Amino acid sequence: MHLSFRRPPNATYLVRRSVWLQNTSDQHILLHLGTGEVRLDKDHRLRFHPDILHNAQVKALVEAGKMTVQDA
Question: Which residue from 14, 18, 22 is spatially nearest to 51, judged by alpha carbons?
Answer without folding.
Answer: 18
